[in-house]
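**User:** Once you have settled down, spend some time on the protein underneath, comparing sequence with structure tokens, and judge whether sequence predicts the tokens.
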Amino acid sequence: MVTAPKPASWTYSEEYVAEDTVLANARARADEVGVSAIGHGGGAALRFLASVLDARAAVEIGTGTGVSGLWILRGMRPDGVLTSVDTEAEHQRLAKETFTEAGIASQRARLIPGAALEVLPRLTDGHYDLVFADGDKQEYPEYLAEALRLLRPGGVVVFDNALWHDKVADPAQRDPDTIAIRELCRVVNEHESLVPVLLPVGDGLLVAKKEWTPET
């Protein structure tokens, strides 16, 4: 029988891949403006996925101050481009500071201000290797629909906060955010074109690969 890890083991796992000064500075900016950035372990997972995919094009929903974006960029190909969407222009300005401090060329980060469900439909179908969602939790099911359109076959979609502060696993929790994430988890798990896994990293990462499907 598998037992849950002790707090010390969980912390060891989360901090296994260390963050540098640039990421620490980005987290400090996030704290200043009230943004909840992805955790160390989640960021490392994003970099790993981008690297495994040899990602040339990625989409991020929720720029924040550039913590998750920098992890993704560091896993992508040297010529890879991240398209990041956020409703807060000030957050994106801070993310630019993060990317500049990290030595990321300006043409590798395309920051688009606006609501995700207004911006995503303007992006190219089947063009992206990775889609990462960390935006409005109640919009997660709609982000999935957009991601399925945006991803190439073999591409991967990732949702942060998939455990939502331990609420998703508790049936008694019925607030709108929890219900939306719980429904997303169900749909992803049952979707015939997705290969899913739910990783207990940080606040939970829901990851799914878009399967290759034969032409009809």
